[in-house]
Specification:
Layout (H helix, E strand, L loop, with lengths): L9 H45 L8 H12 L8 H18 L11 H5 L20 H5 L3 H10 L3 H14 L3 H10 L12 H4 L3 H10 L3 E3 L13 H14 L1 H8 L3 E12 L2 E11 L4 E7 L6 H18 L8 E6 L4 H8 L6 E7 L6 H6 L3 H10 L1
Helix pairs in contact: 1-3, 2-3, 6-7, 6-8, 8-10, 11-12
Length: 383
């Protein structure tokens, strides 16, 4: 019997297995992406060909149905080429042709070569249009044709389409989850904070409420950054907290709707371990407690672990039976949004990452357009 593992510690075994497992998963993911990309390219080519020949009346009515039936006779067992599917390929090609493969001199789907032959490597690097600078090629090829059609069925706005593709890749949604998300409504892409709400909340509708509710960035113009020197993060974070609590009405207005302030440095205890949540709110729309963890620096993944512990205790010890699971937000000075999305996705409690700016972060010209802080304070006191 082999005794090769006798000199291997449990930690070494764990690391070795994890390293190999990661390589396998990455390889599988890459293989799936390559298969998906090849299929998308084929469907795009077929769609261009069908569009060029059917839109001008050359084929006549009923041609696509006839073609589909003949294909199934000649290729027994062929899937994905029903009449409806071929029409979807045409829709897919007609939409993306304008963004991905159109040369400046080409007219809309009228090139004779498109009507005569099918090219199935349209999405190779050599043919990917230099005009498509805003389109992430890996993300585009990283979702299935079914995913693409779910998105195009819901919206044709290119910014919303690209946002939905990105979110599908980041959150690894299957077709049915994506469909539920789209039914609940597409939030404005430029204002969405990195989050895991769709995976962790009780319904897609609830998740979309949360996604719309929390912005990616907040302006806290009552914080004097000159008092924050970033030498002692604990002191600086407490200072930010104190400024927010002192201006709690304005902070709630910044959060926008249906927030009630529960308290700051909210005491939590479990198994003799004590912890304090920076800011705790209740939101009527979500019917959930909302814990906000303040950080004066750049986002770090460790902040999510700390917030996760707070949410565990809140749900076990504070949450009422009729309330939804608590939501957590890390509010920090800056964050790499893509990395934040990556870091938060595997947690099983609803959390998001947002950033804040103070008035001194804004351009001087924009600062001049803001109302006077003292006047705002008077208005708040009168309300």
């Amino acid at each position: 019997m082999s005794t090769e593992n006798e000199n291997m510690s449990s930690e070494e075994l764990k690391n070795a297995v994890q390293t190999i497992k990661n390589a396998i998963l990455q390889s599988q993911s890459r293989a799936v992406q390559m298969i998906s990309g090849a299929q998308l390219s084929l469907y795009f080519g077929v769609g261009l060909y069908v569009s060029a020949n059917s839109r001008n009346g050359q084929w006549g009515t009923g041609a696509i149905k006839t073609i589909s039936e003949q294909l199934r006779r000649e290729l027994p067992g062929l899937r994905g080429f029903s009449e409806e599917s071929i029409k979807k390929m045409r829709t897919f090609a007609e939409y993306w042709h304008h963004y991905l493969n159109r040369s400046p001199s080409a007219t809309d789907l009228e090139e004779s070569s498109v009507r005569a032959v099918i090219t199935y490597d349209y999405f190779s690097l050599s043919k990917w249009s230099p005009l498509a600078t805003e389109i992430n090629r890996e993300e585009f090829l990283g979702i299935s044709f079914s995913h693409h059609m779910e998105i195009l069925h819901k919206t044709k706005d290119i910014n919303e389409v690209l946002f939905c593709i990105h979110e599908t890749v980041v959150h690894q949604w299957d077709k049915y989850t994506l469909r539920d998300v789209l039914k609940a409504g597409i939030p404005q892409p430029e204002h969405v904070a990195p989050n895991n709400f769709v995976q962790t909340m009780t319904s897609a509708k609830q998740a979309m409420k949360a996604i719309r509710m929390f912005k990616d960035e907040y302006l806290l113009d009552y914080i004097n950054v000159e008092d924050i020197d970033a030498q002692d993060e604990d002191v600086d974070e407490r200072l930010v907290e104190q400024r927010i609590v002192h201006n709690i009405k304005r902070f709630i207005m910044t959060l926008e709707r249906d927030f009630t302030f529960v308290g700051n440095q909210y005491h939590l205890e479990i198994y003799g371990e004590e912890m304090w949540s920076d800011l705790l709110f209740f939101n009527r729309e979500l019917n959930a407690l909302v814990a906000i963890e303040l950080k004066v620096g750049k986002f770090k993944p460790s902040y999510l672990g700390q917030l996760y512990a707070y949410l565990q205790v809140l749900d076990d010890k504070v949450r009422k039976p009729h309330e939804n699971p608590s939501v957590g937000i890390v509010l920090c000075k800056s964050a790499n949004q893509a990395y934040a999305e990556y870091a938060v996705r595997d947690y099983n409690k609803p959390m998001g990452i947002a950033t804040y700016k103070t008035i001194s972060d804004m351009p001087k010209e924009m600062q001049k357009t803001l109302p006077d802080i003292e006047e705002l304070k008077k208005l708040m006191d009168e309300s």
